[in-house]
Amino acid sequence: MPTRLRFLQRVILGVVCWGIAITSSTEAQTVQGVRIDAAGVMKTRQVAGLAMKPDQRLDPEWAYVSLPKLFEEVQKSTEAGQELPERLRFLDGLVKIERIYVRPEQSDLILAGPAEPWDASNPLRVRGRRTGRPVITLDDLILALRQFGPNSRSRVFGCTLLQDAGAAERVARLQREILAKRITNQTVIAQALKESLGPLTAEYFGVPADTRFALTCIESDYLMKRLSLGLDRMSVPGVKSYLDRSGSGHLFNRFWFVADYAPLLVSPDGMTFQLPDQGLALKTSDSEMDQDTKNDGA
Predict the structure, then answer these.
(1) Which residues, in sequence order, are CB contacts of 104 under 8 Å at separation 6+?
(2) Residue range 24-51: average pLDDT?
(3) How far apart (Å, rounded) are the C-alpha atoms in residues 106 and 126?
């Protein structure tokens, strides 16, 4: 594979999927995540949502972001001691990268995709005003280039949940107790499971722990876990939580996100790249890793 294509694939991996815990098939067995508060203790709280309702009346527009010109403007502002304007920090409102244009005669590389006016009332969760989609930020782009550039050995990034040595035994004991007492109240089961697991430690791989990459990974996984336990209401009609679907017989299944990619489309001259829609797959497996459940997707 040409070095240029390999580099672009790795950059897009970092930029487009900055909020995803990406794992290989061998790592997926142990990856699970949780949100951590400022004190480093895992607690339950609702993550702040969009500060405004997405305005579907706004027409979508495209932004074309030249990386050399972007970095030149950033350098000038930095050297002048000026704060970066929002249009640079939020890449002109780019919410998705759909095309990449390579212009070697101009020493240029252009990222293109739909862009929207942005809501930055929460600086950690900048959203497009039309669709509510997250806006790609300069911080995330720079980190992606550093972590997944041509000289990097990074292949995956995400977060993992570390349990203490007695967690599995405590959960197994709880499961036997629930079955013996025929407990069916899902709220009671979820609370008992939380107490049995006890304090957990979040660990990051592939990206520094003090970055938005890491924060997004941990919060995304945290929200997914709350939905799976039925602690938050599903926004899609007819979709049930994991406990509602499985009953109380399996309490220790693991869940993790993986990237669901389609191949890049490349123009005949190799100068234009079309990125297909990116998605996520939610995987799950039984802690005992039996043949019936270890490769199931949820």
Answers:
(1) 271
(2) 41
(3) 32
pTM: 0.69
End-to-end CA distance of the chain: 33
A 10 A CB-CB count for 101 gives 15
Give the per-residue pLDDT at 109.
93
What does the longest C-alpha to C-alpha distance in the chain come to?
73
Looking at per-residue pLDDT, the higher value among 145 and 54 belongs to 145
Handedness of CA 200, 204, 208, 210 (dihedral sign): negative
Cα(74)–Cα(166) distance, rounded to whole angstroms?
50
Q: In the chain, where does DSSP find H-type helix?
A: 3-16, 67-79, 86-89, 138-148, 167-181, 186-197, 212-228, 242-246
**Given the structure tokens 């990097």, which residue do they identify?**
152
d(CA 228, CA 56): 30
Q: Find tokens 């006890």 and name the residue.
A: 198
Alpha-carbon distance of 89 to 50, in angstroms, equals 19
3-state secondary structure of 259: strand
What is the chain's length? 298
Extract the tokens encoding 140.
Answer: 């995330």
Mean pLDDT of 51-71: 72
Q: In the prediction, which pLDDT does 79 show?
A: 95
Instruction: Tell me which residue of 261, 244, 243 sits closest to 252, measured CA to CA.
Output: 243
CB 127 within 8 A of CB 50: yes
Distance CA 163, CA 198 (A): 8
Q: How far apart are CA 29 and CA 243, in angstroms?
A: 20
Tell me the helix, strand and coil percentages in the chain, rounded to 5.
35, 20, 50
